[in-house]
What does this fold into?
Amino acid sequence: MPELPEVETVVAGLKPQITGAKLVSVSDSGKNLRYPLPDFSTLLQQNIQRVERRAKYLLFYFENGQTLIWHLGMTGQFHVLAQHEAKTKHEHVTLTFTDGNTLRYRDTRRFGYAGLCDSDDLEQHAWFAKLGVEPLLDDFSGDYLRDILKTRKTSIKQAIMDNHVVVGVGNIYASESLFRAGIHPTQVANSLKPKQYALLVQHIKTVLAEAIEAGGSTISDFVKAVGKPGYFAHSFKVYGREGEPCHTCKKPIEKIILGGRVSFFCSKCQMMK
DNA sequence: AAGGTTACCTGCCCGC
DNA sequence: TGCGGGCAGGTAACCT
It folds into this structure.
């Protein structure tokens, strides 16, 4: 489910519901997620002070100076429900708060994972230490992208999905931003013209921002919205549109596999230059 | 060292 | 209707 806009939407939805909540207990299904769950005992009787996003991770800052880090994997979802609500299938972790609310973590495929670390050491944590820049910050610029890719021979599509380069660009928005920038997904990463790096960066930012905006409009319907592919899907120009006419030139959208991931593009609008 | 492949896990959709 | 194969929006551990 989640790329950066989805995680941003989840965080925005959780903030008003659990900020300030005091944790009283944690239970789990006994099934492992991608990695073993952390020991939650130091968080008991502690308030959640803030909820934030870094890359595709959710960060729950607790008052004892520790941060609970959570990645949703492919199918992870959070729901805030009253304590008495029945457990559903694939619900693997339940955090219970003093106000009677619970934060439920559901994850069908169990690719998600959670960890705990001192808030002061977050950027040194193994999951964060090697991450690239946040795409929506000014650090992510055409010059940055050109420089970091100057020795990379992989495809530009795989390069922008590499979270050592820039975080948060998943499979959908990689295809979408390359289409908007008119860049062929197989183009060698270090072979773009200077203007193309800038253009690509600009389109990554706008497509992510638009998707966040679309997600934002559904926050009041948060529980239902999370996990559904629909809300930004109507805006896809290439993703999932194999064989359908390009909105710009009418040529059928094509599909290829790059790095094991499906990639969509228009061979006329995204010509190799 | 970069790049390719595989693995993790379940559900769904498609073709036979 | 049933079954098997392929595929799914992520990440990292392996190889070479």
About this structure: Residues 4-129 of chain A form a domain with the N-terminal domain of MutM-like DNA repair proteins fold (CATH 3.20.190.10). The longest helix of chain A spans residues 194-216.
